[in-house]
Amino acid sequence: MQHLSPFTCRRLKRLPRLTSVWEGERRRLPESLLESDDDAPSSPGDCILWIDGSQGMIRTLQMVPSETGHEAVVRSLIQAIEHPQSGCEPARPRKIVIKDRELQFFLRGALQELEIEVEHARELPLIDDIFDHLIQTEEPNLPSIPDAYETPLIDAANRVWEDAPWYLFTEQDILAITLNRWSVETLYVSILGMADVEYGLLLYRSLDSLRQFRQRALAAGQSPQELQQAFLDQNCLFINFEPSDRAVEGLYLPGEEGVRCDFGSLHPLEGLRTELADEEAATLIVALEACHRFVNKNVDALTSDILQAIKSSFRIANPMVAKPAIADAPKTAKTVTVTGETLPEIATELIQETEEMSPSPGLGIPLPQLNGDTVPDGALILLTELPTELMDDLRTARRIYHQPLLSESRKFRKATAWPTVIVQTSRPKAKLLIEQLRSHGGVTAVCFNPGSDPFNQQLFQLALLQTQDESLHLLHEYEMDNPRHVTALDKWQDRQQKSQGRCGIIIAAGATGAARGQPTIREMLAFFEAEAVDPEQLDLQPLVLGYSMDLD
Is residue 91 part of a domain? Predict the structure, then answer.
């Protein structure tokens, strides 16, 4: 029986305990409700649902592959406790009720440290009603973009992607696009991507909405719930580019393998919507074409370190002309006059606001420097277990660099095996990585720090190395909706407890040879001994991705 780590138990016990009873169920949905993907090895087939029966609120609803074990139910319960999807506050239930006897016994063992009663019930009426509603309201997926506008919209998005305007505009450098058509006067465009984290355009329907979101995002700090709510309260159209080699459904740019684009609308009363009306699709086409022409016409002026006041006008083909005419409707103009204009005053205002609302470096816990380019591109990151025999060989091999534990913050008993991170790359890059780590004083700790991406509503764990100069180095990102990633992290936690907190870091070559993914001692070039620590020990808080303000 696996148990929650002591760090997780402490974290969850800090949350308030409700008097309410939650119902939980894992159930297979009909195939017609599931998205099929011929290229994927397996499709999500089970739905896990947690509902607060006293308040009638869904805490979480999650799809998981059918082959995953009961651990997936525990993970979804933790999500319901810490990150409820219904907008309610994080909290623990007094009691949970389960229909499956086997699952009940499993949860009793897994949750015994959290003081949550786990009871059995033959019937769960609220759960049954929700699943019945899901099945009865099954409808075919509606197209996100009207057919007449899909191709021109993808083409316009492709031109913006090739322009890469995020290398010319920061998030504060707002571009105003004036259309005076389709119930839109001016769109205020914030361009994301200069930090190479999230690529996209937010086209606000008003300047007040842009200001309000930035103020709320800065005030939210590191609260995923507050940041997500601020995101949903925006009033804008958006386009998001996702470079990815994963086989996911969506719209892909022509000639750009693996670059998917998502379109949609955000509104305080509607939330996020991906189905665009004809006028919204036409507005996006014209606005994106205006951005493309503005960048190409003014690229020299935009490369200046300081945003200049620039204004340009264009005549752009009206996408609505291609739509079949409605009887007795006024004749549609063939072109649209559009004005693009930079707003240096607004940029200065937003930068000053960011500086004022950002925490002072001298207050509170100092934020450590996170180095994201330490690990070579294309390196394999493997989480494994290091047997004592191999450990002894690594310590005594002359050709392998060995760093013993730099400091012992506590006394250790003899361990049987250590959890170990292997970074496997090419031999030249491996040698360079070893020298970089040595230049920072060597490795002192390995930590997995939780984070969230409110834009894509994803949770993840960041694998971090701490060196002796107290700097942090990003190893890898583990997505919590990926069963393989979750399994690897669970195994690490188990091994960490057995090793009493000691771990290893191995730098190996052979990433392109026969030993790829399974390096032997022949490929291993360095062995660093370190401590496996919890985020609390490094004074780390959960990270929020995508909205940090880069003022450089």
Answer: yes
What domain count does the chain have?
3
Average of pLDDT values for 109-123?
A: 85
Gap between the Cα atoms of 232 and 229, Å rounded = 5
Domain that holds residue 538: 370-544
Average pLDDT, the chain: 80
Retrieve residue 178's tokens.
């004036």
Q: Specify the higher pLDDT residue, 130 or 327.
A: 130
Q: Which of 202, 139, 215 is nearest to 175 (CA)?
A: 202
Q: Is residue 206 part of a domain?
A: yes
Count Cβ atoms within 10 A of the Cβ of residue 369 and give its class: 0-12 exposed, 13-18 middle, 19 or more buried: exposed
Q: Which of 35-49, 90-104, 378-392 has the lowest mean pLDDT?
A: 35-49
Of 43, 42, 23, 22, which Cα lies nearest the Cα of 33? Answer: 43
90 & 168 share domain? no
The pLDDT of 54-69, averaged and rounded, is 81
Residue 6: which of 453, 494, 476, 457 has the closest Cα?
A: 494
Same domain membership, residue 341 and residue 435: no
Do 125 and 217 reside in the same domain of the chain?
A: no
Does 94 share its domain with 159? no
463-483 pLDDT, tens digit each: 999 999 888 998 988 888 778
* pLDDT category of residue 234 using cuts at 50, 70 and 90: confident
Concatenate the DSSP letters of all residues of 54-114 into one string.
Answer: TTTEEEEEEEEETT--THHHHHHHHHHHHS-TTSPPP-B-SEEEES-HHHHHHHHHHTGGG
* Single residue among 93, 113, 136 that ends a domain in this structure: 136
